[in-house]
């Protein structure tokens, strides 16, 4: 049974994520402020479902001026796509060797060079590819308007990473001068891309206290710092996380275990010492790689192998996706699940579009102050009419209330006046009755006095 927990999702800040699945589909997920609670939703889908076009590796130039994305598929094709609208720029097949037609020799390593700026006149890009057999290649690809194979320049570099084993992970540093490779039966090694020469090779750890030797099987790797290629972190199939420093020694400087399933995804934090780790059972956690201390686990609904972990370059958000077809967005500070999106197909990779916040959130003019002013003006105009209506309604209510008060006062005065008039009338009647009684008494007295006078 999958592990499920009821967690309230507070929503995400404005962001844009590109996901890549096993059927070759590219889906764009966006979260905006206008949506209720910042819930991310699928806004676009590129491609048609085809298992032979499953996306194995992805590389993206996350630039605000000229963004570009390369996708390596299971059938051996490499497609260069615009991450903004999904337009196809170039297609390259059999980029490395003739044996790419075999399913066991897929392109597992892919990188687009961002330091070589794209020229509008030449319309070309430089691409690094590496197959699971260890065939690496660097070449320049020209863009074409049609969906045909793009021509490659003759100035290409090819070399072999390993004589045996399978390459499973490939990573290029920020300076784009060095690349590391590792895999099943292949120790992690670093190559100089300019000279295509190996500059460092790891040494396998010694046997444990029981005399058991752990076979070499690297599944993922990432450089720890953007400015330094000498320190990197690698995950193994034996659920170990290893820290290497090529300036110190060939063996791991630090090694620790994480749960009991193979490490499938790794990514370093922007602080330079924290790493995010995901394994084959859906567990995800963050570690302080300086000491190997567990900082905390990411708690949420997890029910599948994690295949990709990506840290947002600016926002405190980290994304994870895997074979359970869910894209999950987490808060890096609290490790709380912000939101999750079900995408129907098993996911292999995810990438953030950092330029989405600058372009989409303050929609308006070019500069940020002007954008804020325009948004404030719009909000004031929108809010002006209901406020006036409310005031007018209040005035009407006040007028009606005054009229009601005046009417009530008048009725009370009338009642009082009626009461006074009635009292006066009663008093007059009483006085009249008293007067009549007194006159009658006087008459009776006079009559009594008058009778004896007549008798006398």
Automatic annotation (TrEMBL):
Transmembrane annotation, as ranges: none
Positions of the UniProt region annotated as Disordered: 367-456
Gene3D superfamilies for this protein: YVTN repeat-like/Quinoprotein amine dehydrogenase
Biased composition (Basic and acidic residues): 394-403, 410-436
Record's GO cellular component terms: nucleolus; preribosome, large subunit precursor
GO annotation terms (biological process): ribosomal large subunit biogenesis
PANTHER family documented for this protein: NOP SEVEN ASSOCIATED PROTEIN 1, WD REPEAT-CONTAINING PROTEIN 74
Name of the protein this chain belongs to: Putative transcription factor WD40-like family
Record organism: Lupinus albus (White lupine)
